[in-house]
Amino acid sequence: MVAASTADAALRREQQRILRSSAAAFVVCAAVFAAAVIILPRLVQLPGPDLGSRLTVWAGANLFLVAWVMTGIGMVSTGRRRSADDIRGSAYAPPSPKIAVAAAFLQNTLEQAFVAALAQFALVMLLPSLSMPLIAASVLLFSIGRITFLAGYPRGAGARAFGMALTALPSLLAFVLGLGALVYQLAR
């Protein structure tokens, strides 16, 4: 009974850390998106409204997403080559503790990159006027999110939550904005 209440208390503390970290990530995302929409157009010449220019920006953004996937692949590959327990590959055993964090980072990064790419594409197609600064901000947040996710991973869910939220919230925003734009266009 005491062990269960101790475990429940530890779970609640970790959940509170996750909420605090996620709230901090939300504030950072809001600030970066606001700066991108307000300041970025004053600092740089954004691509025009034509589809070709928008798709070029989206393709460039995808290169940054792919770079993070490639980083994860490199981490797992290097770890496998250096570990007798892992060198045979994932078909023969789950990752050993030596590469477990790298494998989890790669898996999560693949998932996040897939969602980010599709959500950004929806923005490019459905909200052309707003998509360019939002995509620039999303790529920056994705990169910072991946770094902080990886750095926090060994210290638990509360420590990696900031990076997770910083990575996921831009995709959620793009999804909601894209869906809203689609509903608006269909209703007209």
TrEMBL record:
<protein>
    <submittedName>
        <fullName>Uncharacterized protein</fullName>
    </submittedName>
</protein>
<dbReference type="InterPro" id="IPR001129">
    <property type="entry name" value="Membr-assoc_MAPEG"/>
</dbReference>
<keyword id="KW-0812">Transmembrane</keyword>
<keyword id="KW-1133">Transmembrane helix</keyword>
<dbReference type="Pfam" id="PF01124">
    <property type="entry name" value="MAPEG"/>
</dbReference>
<dbReference type="InterPro" id="IPR023352">
    <property type="entry name" value="MAPEG-like_dom_sf"/>
</dbReference>
<keyword id="KW-0472">Membrane</keyword>
<dbReference type="GO" id="GO:0045055">
    <property type="term" value="P:regulated exocytosis"/>
</dbReference>
<dbReference type="GO" id="GO:0005765">
    <property type="term" value="C:lysosomal membrane"/>
</dbReference>
